[in-house]
Amino acid sequence: MTDPVVEAVEVVKWLGRGAAQVQALKGVSLALRGGELTLLMGPSGSGKTTLLSILGCMLTPTHGAVRLGGRSTEGAGAEELARIRREHVGFVFQSYHLFPTLTATDNVRLALDVRGENSVRAVAKAKDALAMVGLAHKTNAFPLELSGGEQQRVAIARAIVGHPSAVLADEPTASLDGENGNAIMKLLAEIAKDSSRGVLVVAHDTRILPFADRVVHIEDGRIIREERGEAALAKNEGQCARHDHAENHERVENKA
Amino acid sequence: MSLIYRLASRNLLHDRLRFVATVVGIVFSIVLVMVQLGLYLGFGRIVTTMIDHAAADLWIMPPGTKCFEDPSTLDERARFQALSINGVAQAAPVVIGYADWRIPAGGTFPIFIVGSDLREGGLLPWNVVEGSIEALAIPGAVAVDRSYFDRLGVDAIGANAEIRGQKVEVRAVTNGIRSFTTTPYVFTTLDRARAFTGTAANKATYFQVRVAPGADVESVRDRLRASLSDVDVLTTAEFRDRSRSFWLFGTGAGFALFAGALLGLIVGTVIVAQTLYSSTKDHINEFATLRAIGSSSLYIHKVIICQALISAAIGFCLAAAIGLIVVAATADTALPIVMTPALTLVLFFLTLVMCVISAVAAIVQVTRIDPVMVFTR
Question: Which residue of B has its CA nearest to A85?
Answer without folding.
Answer: B294
